[in-house]
Each structure stands twice: as structure tokens, then as C-alpha cells.
Write a structure and sequence with these properties.
Strand order of the largest sheet: 7-10-11
Distance between the termini: 47 Å
Strand content: 25-35%
Helix content: under 10%
Oligomer: single chain
Number of strands: 19
Radius of gyration: 27 Å
Largest sheet: 3 strands, mixed
């Protein structure tokens, strides 16, 4: 095995037999591009098998100014990211992250994004993470159950009180007339009713002034978007008659409509 000093490639670098069209042909050849038939390992040769076309491990070169943090390929700062990217990233297949990926702007994956070595498939959970509707500079994240409406809910227990406090942001976030309340008495029948609902509280009343002790479950429908159309004619989610941009559908990718 020969060891070489610095090697400069003026146009394109090819390792293997492939000649990818994406790197240009003839006058369209892209200077400074490279194709590696693969697979490749960057950092510590810690992979026992071929897990992907490109595999990243901790930096081991002592000449690198990058801090050597175990389990990470880092930027020049003390943040243990597995992969650090400035700008958008497009991924053609699954992403399996055993540590962290830091992306400067957007991460676009045509396959599933899998973390914790396969234990957490992000597409399987229908979450939302949005700017907080009531507090500037904050964000709001919920994970939702399955329903034919875009619902949110709260649940809990009331003891020796006559009110259920609603989240402060609900007045800006849900249709007030969509709020429904389920009450389950604890210990004894109390004939509890919902007396009224305002922006901040659900007011309760028990027969004869009995101290209230109950569980509650409160649902309401979000108002920050169009109403969900639960049933529609079609062969795939692409046929949805509403605004598909507002939804992330498990097992379906909007950039590949086949």
C-alpha cells in the first residue's frame, strides 16, 4: 500500500467504475465533484458491518482542531452532533441516527427517518411543532391521537374544586364551541355537571354542594387551518381534496407520488 502526500484533483474524482450522470457530461462536467462507488467510513473505523453508503464515526485525527467528543462527528464547537450540516440536506433513503443530526435549515428525506437504532420511526407519530399561538418566542408541540377531526385534548383530576383550568393558549387555538367534557366521579356519585365554559375555565357544579372529586377528559378542535375531510374518493393521499400541505401522512411522501 503506497502512501501519498497531498493529492490534487483538478476536475472530478472517481473511485470505482461508475460515471454518474449527475456530475455532468462533456462541457457540463462539474469541477471539484467526486463519485465513490462506496461504501465509505469517515472517522473511527468502528463499524463492524456495512450499514450505509456513507458511515460517520468520531474524529480520530489528532491534528484536527475539532474537539474529539466520543460518539460524534463534530463541528468546531462543543456540540456532540453525529452529523453537522450547514444548509438543507436531501436524503434518498432511510436515516438511522444513533446520536444526533444538526441541520442548518431543512432536512428532506424520501424514506423513513429512524432514530434510536430503529426504535423510533418519526413517520409513525403524527406530531406538530408550531410557533406558540399566544407567547412570542415560544413553540408548541403536541402529539395527537387518531380522530376524524383535528383535535387536541387535556385530561386530569379535580379534587375539592369547581373549575378545570384550560391551557392559556386554547382561546387562540381551538374553536370554543367544539369543546366537549367527560367527567368520571371518584369514590361516590356526585351528579356533576358542566355549568359553563369560558376562555380560561370549565365551571363545574355538584348536586347539593357535594365536594367534587372526579377525573376529566376535555377535547376541542383546532382552528388554525382548514377542517379535516376524513372521507374522500381517491386511490392515494395525493387525491385528498383539501390542503395536503397541512398534513404529514405516515407511510406517504409527497415528493414521490407513485
Amino acid at each position: 500500500m503506497a502512501k501519498l502526500p497531498d493529492v490534487y484533483v483538478g476536475k472530478r474524482l472517481f473511485v470505482g467504475e461508475g460515471r454518474p450522470i449527475a456530475l455532468g457530461i462533456g462541457p457540463a462536467e462539474i469541477r471539484g465533484s467526486a463519485y465513490i462507488e462506496g461504501p465509505t467510513i469517515t472517522g473511527t473505523p468502528a463499524f463492524p458491518n456495512v450499514w450505509a453508503g456513507a458511515m460517520f464515526a468520531p474524529v480520530t485525527n489528532s491534528e484536527s482542531p475539532t474537539p474529539l467528543i466520543p460518539g460524534a462527528l463534530c463541528t468546531g464547537i462543543h456540540n456532540p452532533y453525529s452529523v453537522a450540516v450547514v444548509g438543507s440536506t436531501a436524503l434518498m433513503g432511510p436515516v438511522d441516527t444513533n446520536n444526533r443530526i444538526n441541520v442548518g435549515t431543512h432536512l428532506i428525506a424520501q424514506g423513513h427517518v429512524i432514530s434510536n437504532c430503529g426504535a423510533h420511526v418519526l413517520a409513525a407519530k403524527k406530531n406538530f411543532d408550531i410557533p406558540h399561538p399566544s407567547i412570542k418566542g415560544w413553540r408548541l408541540r403536541h402529539t395527537c391521537p387518531e380522530a376524524p377531526t383535528n383535535d387536541v385534548y387535556i385530561r386530569g383530576k379535580v379534587k375539592n374544586k369547581k373549575t378545570i383550568a384550560l391551557p392559556s393558549y386554547w382561546k387562540d387555538f381551538v374553536h370554543k364551541d367544539s369543546i366537549t367534557v367527560s367527567l368520571t366521579p371518584i369514590g361516590a356519585h356526585q351528579d356533576i355537571i358542566v355549568k359553563r365554559i369560558d376562555d380560561d375555565y370549565i365551571h363545574l357544579q355538584a348536586n347539593g354542594g357535594i365536594p367534587i372529586h372526579c377525573y376529566y377528559h376535555v377535547f376541542a378542535e383546532r382552528k388554525d387551518g382548514e377542517k379535516l375531510i376524513p372521507e374522500y374518493e381517491g386511490n392515494s393521499p395525493a387525491d385528498y381534496p383539501g390542503n395536503n400541505d397541512q398534513y404529514s401522512i405516515s407511510g406517504y411522501h409527497y415528493d414521490r407520488r407513485d
